[in-house]
């Protein structure tokens, strides 16, 4: 009996691993290609707000988005960041005057907070636990929101969210297009989040804001500055 | 005040702790350098720093005021004739958009000091002056505001157009 289970495991594990490998390869190849779907309604958007300068850059993008195409919008910021979500809320409220219907706006925009993997100066041992908590929370948010489009521009908060979205794609549970816009503060080198998403090819489109950075990272695109 | 025109120097460290900058702008040598350049007032936003600038202006006649935080520093920037700022992109672009002369002082105590990249790049393009706490006095003495080029703000339209095209939306 024990032996049978062992033999079954011996057969099943390589099969599972190969299936997963094929899925990962498929997702990687499929990323960077336009999603195929009907566009009857808007796209569910996840907008990851960083802090300070990051949020200002992201809100510049959001204000340019066609609101009928990119709706509903889910804003996520770190739990310890109490400046970013109010900025997004002020912006979404300002749309009420444009679009009129208050109820609709509240439905179209939602605001959430996420645990951070690691606070500045936190010890490495406790950060294992907090990273795990942040990852599980990110996974829960991604499963709840099931975003079709993800906008992020660093910092670290976006990594567990993008990784969770990638896992959902591998498991075939939902497709999302990830757009990463590197911060304008990065002139010569990518940020750690940017480098991770670039090297792992997790972002469908990767933007930088300085031409010299684009030359260093040829898969990135340069389409001017946001600020 | 009176018949003399006020020329305010506004120093901002944002939400950071940057005592090295606050100490330097509070030094007698820097105040003298600012007076020589014709500035009359010094307003310091000191953030989370613990160093308190001296309100008394010593033998110089520069008027010194300070505060920790304010919800919006846009008005302070608007009223200033010169802004001395930490290297955060928020303060930098807020000042450049309002068209004020700007000296960015890089915080050397930050571990991951990528912030100097942006200040150095914009200094190379003559949009601002870039300094370190120990070189700020020389920068003030040597600066010629006429060499500064106005900054043309960027826009998100091209990026959003590419995102739309990628998603298969018609680009208008």
From TrEMBL, chain A:
This is UDP-N-acetylglucosamine transferase subunit ALG14. It is found in: Endoplasmic reticulum membrane. Keywords: Endoplasmic reticulum, Membrane, Transmembrane, Transmembrane helix. It comes from Triticum turgidum subsp. durum. It is a single-pass membrane protein. InterPro entries: Oligosacch_biosynth_Alg14. Belongs to the ALG14 family. GO terms for cellular component: UDP-N-acetylglucosamine transferase complex. PANTHER family: GLYCOSYL TRANSFERASE-RELATED, UDP-N-ACETYLGLUCOSAMINE TRANSFERASE SUBUNIT ALG14 HOMOLOG. One of its GO terms (biological process) is dolichol-linked oligosaccharide biosynthetic process. GO terms for molecular function: N-acetylglucosaminyldiphosphodolichol N-acetylglucosaminyltransferase activity. Its main location: endoplasmic reticulum. Coiled coil: none annotated.
From TrEMBL, chain B:
GO terms for biological process: dolichol-linked oligosaccharide biosynthetic process. GO terms for cellular component: UDP-N-acetylglucosamine transferase complex. It comes from the Eukaryota. GO terms for molecular function: hexosyltransferase activity. Residues 8-153 form the Glycosyl transferase family 28 C-terminal domain. Gene3D superfamilies: Glycogen Phosphorylase B. This is Glycosyl transferase family 28 C-terminal domain-containing protein. It comes from Triticum aestivum (Wheat). The gene is LOC123188950.
